[in-house]
Design brief:
InterPro entries: Beta-lactam-related (IPR001466), Beta-lactam/transpept-like (IPR012338), Diverse_Enzym_Activities (IPR050789). The chain is 30% helix and 17% strand. The protein is of the alpha+beta class. The relative contact order is 0.17.
């Protein structure tokens, strides 16, 4: 790809020519989003190109200091790209520079796409998010909850409430990633962690077996991060009659032009997959060995390709994911393709937790965290902002007040001691000048 790093308008004829060519190329790859990289565009939509350059310099330091290998980020305001940068290295050992078309494991950023799929099926009259999960997956009835007892163990109690699809969308279904009181049972059943790429069975079969295990809390009473969205992925398969991969491809990726978003990597795209790193005890980072599991390079190129994890399975690019987010900011439509109605997006991006505790200044909608009190949260942004991220240290947010979309992708796990996300947030908001 011709666009890799730090193309800036320096006033020379050559620079202007290159920037024009880059803009034309990028516009062809993201047809529904106006793309340009000149600071003139930033000023036109109320942002400072000079200040965005400061952000880029600050993010580059993480690569120079070997705290990250590299990153790609994209910033859109009023539907126009004001920054689309690739810094550092996609693969340090092989000497491959990061590119704007580098492909990343986006892990839990998959959750928002699965949540949208559920809402699309509701709009088609094929399900209702307030109905019990057991209506669609019958084995998820008569659930038991593991409750602590006086001996340090637990007893099982019948669940006070049935799990609904809305519980799953808001992570109040009562299940973790198999790490609660009954963790030993979940471990014996091979049901721990968010990684599904090594499974040789369809996700529908995995979720059916999961239903026999105890919940960690009564449905609807606590926010617990866990398999909620993977279960929703199985619901999509049952209700639509398609695999989750096919439903996504036919109903979301194709209409939005998300051509580089996949559960498993096509052979022709393997050289674009960014390497996963981990911090070293003595400082710096190192590539994680080519082993299988949650903290590995993963079986996204070579593997069974049988299980489609609606909670954490997708690969994507910053540009592709920006299309998805811009569609939500537009009220369900992008480039003449309407996926859902404006009212559905409004419901998804409204806090549904009520009195259920989550994080200071934040609630949770149908697939996204929701900023409810910026002062209480204590970071720059706007009330109504919706966001999430992924296990490999990626993040994104949409700020409807500022008409802003941000996607930031990198590949490190665990992300010990890193503060690049706040550097990103501060750098973007300081660049708003209107």
């Amino acid at each position: 790809m011709p666009y890799t790093h730090h193309l800036r308008n320096n006033g020379s004829a050559l620079a202007l020519f290159v920037l024009g060519a880059v803009s034309a190329f990028l516009s062809s790859t993201l047809p529904s989003i106006a793309l340009a990289d000149s600071p003139i565009v930033a000023e036109r939509v109320g942002m400072s190109g000079e200040r965005l350059a400061l952000l880029d310099n600050n993010l580059e330091r993480y690569n120079e200091d070997s705290r990250l290998a590299g990153q790609v980020y994209i910033v859109l305001r009023h539907g126009e790209v004001v920054a689309h940068e690739a810094n550092g290295m996609q693969d340090v050992a092989r000497g491959v520079a990061m590119n704007t078309d580098s492909i990343f494991r986006i892990a839990s950023q998959t959750k928002a796409i699965t949540s949208l799929a559920i809402m699309m099926l509701q709009e088609r009259g094929l399900l209702d998010i307030n109905q019990p999960l057991s209506k669609y997956l019958p084995e998820w009835s008569n659930m038991q909850v593991a409750v602590s007892d006086d001996s340090g163990g637990y007893t099982l109690q019948p669940a006070r409430n049935e799990i609904t699809l809305r519980h799953l969308l808001t992570h109040t279904g009562g299940m973790s990633y198999g790490t609660g009181r009954s963790a030993a049972e979940w471990q014996r059943a091979n049901m721990q962690g968010w990684y599904f790429a090594d499974r040789e069975e369809p996700v529908r079969e995995t979720i059916a077996r999961m239903a026999a295990l105890p919940l960690d809390a009564h449905p609807g009473e606590n926010w617990i991060y866990g398999y909620n969205t993977d279960i929703l992925g199985a619901v999509v398969e049952v209700v639509s009659g398609e695999t989750l991969a096919d439903f996504f491809a036919n109903n979301i990726f194709a209409p939005l032009g998300m051509n580089d978003t996949h559960f498993y990597l096509p052979a022709a795209k393997r050289d674009r997959l960014a390497t996963v790193y981990r911090p070293k005890q003595e400082g710096g980072i190192e590539a994680i060995p080519e082993t299988n599991g949650m903290q590995s390079q993963g079986l996204y190129a070579d593997g069974p390709r049988q299980s489609f994890s609606g909670g954490a399975g997708l690969l994507s690019t910053a540009g592709d994911y920006a299309k998805f987010l811009q569609m939500t900011l537009n009220g369900g439509e992008l480039n003449g393709e309407r996926l859902v109605s404006r009212k559905t997006i409004e419901l998804m991006t409204t806090d549904h937790l009520g009195t259920i505790e989550f994080r200071p200044g934040q609630g949770f909608g149908l697939g996204f965290s929701i900023a409810t009190d910026v002062g209480l949260r204590g970071t720059l942004g706007s009330e109504g902002e919706y966001a999430w991220g992924g296990a490999y240290h990626s993040t994104y947010w949409v700020d409807p007040v500022e008409d802003l979309v941000v996607v930031y992708l990198t590949q490190i796990i665990p992300a010990t001691g890193l503060d690049d996300h706040i550097t990103l947030r501060n750098g973007i908001y300081q660049a708003i000048v209107d």
